[in-house]
Amino acid sequence: MKVKKKFKGLSDKAVGWLFIGPSVLLLLAINIYPLVYAIKMSFTNFYANKIGRVPEFVGLKNYIKVLNKEAIWEKMQVTASFMFWTLLLQAIIGLGLALLLNRKFKGNELLTTLIVLPMMLSPAVVGVFWTYLYNPQVGLFNYVVNFFYDFGSFDMIGSSMLAPWSIVIVDTWMWTPFTMLICLAGLRSVPNYLYEAAEVDRANKWQQFIYITLPSVLPFLLLALLFRGIENFKMFDMVVELTSGGPGSATELASINLKREAFEKWKTGYSSAFAVILFVTIFGFGNVYVKVMNKIKER
Amino acid sequence: MDTSRSYLEPSSFSKKIAAAIIIVYTVITLIPISWMVMTSFKNVDSAISYPPEVLFEPSLEGYVNLFTNRSRQSPEYLDSLPPPENWYEELVRSREMVITGPSKFLGRYSNSMIIGFGSTFASVFLGALAAYAFSRFRVPLKDDLLFFILSTRMFPPIAVAVPIFIMYRKIGLGDTHLGMIILYTVVNLSLAVWLLKGFMDEIPKEYEEAAMIDGYSRLQAFFKVVLPQAMTGIAATAIFCMIFSWNEYAFAVLLTQFNAQTAPPFIPTIIGEGGLDWPAIGAGTTLFLLPVMIFTIILRKHLLRGITFGAVRK
Questions:
Q1: What percentage of chain B has pLDDT greater than the value 90?
Q2: Binning pLDDT at 50, 70 and 90, where does residue B8 land?
Q3: Facing A182 at nearest CB: one of B137, B268, B304
Q4: Which residues of chain A have pLDDT under 50?
Q5: What angle do CA B66, B238, B297 make, to 5 degrees?
Q6: What is the pTM of this model?
Q7: By the 8 A CB rule, do A222 and A296 touch?
Q8: Residues on chain B touching A116 (C-beta within 8 angstroms)
Q9: Helix, strand, coil proportions of chain A in percent (round to 5)?
């Protein structure tokens, strides 16, 4: 017999609202309201440093300006190539490390913890101390490179050819452990019986890798790349401290450009339009990516 | 034929090769961090010598410079001063300088502490409440709400920084501890809700139901039964929130200047005579990174969960 239980105190429904309410309100106030505000400003010629001047409605002018500006497309290209190389390197090295760590040799727990350290550090502070490592006169990085092959003096941060690589190297150094950890979880989730069955069918190790290991890790790797992709699309802190977007605008990622327009030139309306465009891009790409990822998972 | 080991166990030779490669990678990946720690114990001259010095005479000059402001003085003036009272004054005098006062570092460091702890506490508390409700109750539009909470993490910080800057200026929260605590609480909330929901899902419902049959109200059951059970998860979540607030730079550099500035925007501005004072930056970096490294070691079992918002569990 089922008896409707009656407990003392507030009803579950009331407790539910009481518990979720504050978080949602806070997110609305500090996250959604500013976003709506930004959208509103993006249709005006507002300058945040000119207090008292009434902004005018300018329609889509800011958006048209952003999309027609060649410099913006350059920044997008810099961002895209930064994302391409960091994600590619982190996928390959991360997966490789995970495969090696999955051999379960003695001490691999300790080594995993040590490898993970860089990604827990403050990106801005990491950026600062890499400027020291990259220093063309006294830097350790330059010394080590020249130790193996004498290139003579070179400046990773000062040369517009090398600077994009300088940020790729630091980001890869810092975040490869991220893909590694997630791939490792993927490898550990593969049930042993798959390999046992493969052995019975006389599949060699290479075939096992291609037909069992890789398809099982792929969804995990894609998830890791999604997280990294979003983060690197927004990348700001490490690069600001390392190259501050220079030399010229060789490493000026979208976020850094946005900061310059918004907080140095104070073109609030224009920069809001740019911010909205960036946000739509990240959201759109993210959604498509998740759909593709789920399709791959289903297979 | 060796039949004692299973097909699946890698051969001991391949294990050795794997271990060797991983050890080499670990050593290489730790060099930049070790180098910074080493630099913090160098003196200003040995930090800028080439080739870089691996063996050097340790010095605390970096740490002294980190915590003090100094000014250069003429030898005549230095001679006229009474003898130095302590070792650090002596060290500074040997560089023909005098200490003019404490530097801003301690203040920035404690700002990081205050804002970090404040926002961590708030986001874990609010997150635990929301996570419990999402885990146990039938909430209308639950999946949409959860996705909404997560999506707030996708905003580029710079995109919302301008409106927040204007908003904070209007209500007087600009460059204040409270303003930064609220901001970091909100940023961390998505992580806290998602992680804690995962942990709460793992606690059997039966515990609190039994307590409620014994006469506890829902609230009492939550505070006296569920929260203690979720302690490990709460601790792990708190550390993740703390690390985020501790490391955050974009909002800090845009929204704070004097009063509530945290350490990350401050460390890069440590300047000595004729350029950056590398031992002092090394010292600041070392002191700043130390807590995070300790936390990482404590957290190692929950790392995976934390970095994927609970999407991947071991």
A1: 25
A2: low
A3: B304
A4: 1-4
A5: 65
A6: 0.88
A7: yes
A8: 296, 300, 303
A9: 70, 0, 25
On average, the pLDDT of chain A sits at: 87
Residue with tokens 């915590």: B67
State the CATH number of the domain containing residue A180. 1.10.3720.10
Neighboring chain B residues of A233 at a CB cutoff of 8 Å:
156
Angle at which helices B157-171 and A268-298 pack, to 10 degrees?
A: 130
Tally of domains in chain A: 1
Helix axes A163-188, A108-120, angle to 10 degrees: 140
Whether ipTM exceeds 0.90: no
Report how many Cβ contacts below 8 Å link chain A to chain B. Answer: 290
Structural domain contains residue A81: yes
Distance of alpha carbon A73 from alpha carbon A85, whole angstroms: 18
DSSP-derived secondary structure letter, A243: T
DSSP code of residue B43 = -
Q: Over the Cα atoms of chain A, what is R_g?
A: 25
Q: Which one has a higher pLDDT value, B27 or B174?
A: B27
Nearest to B292 by CA among B252, B232, B239: B239
Kindly state the tokens that stand for A288: 């498509």
- Is the peptide bond prior to B291 cis by the omega test (within 30 degrees of 0)? no
Distance (Å, whole) CA B294 – CA A161: 38
In angstroms, the CA A36 to CA A261 distance is 19
**Which superfamily does CATH assign the domain made up of B106-307 to?**
MetI-like (1.10.3720.10)
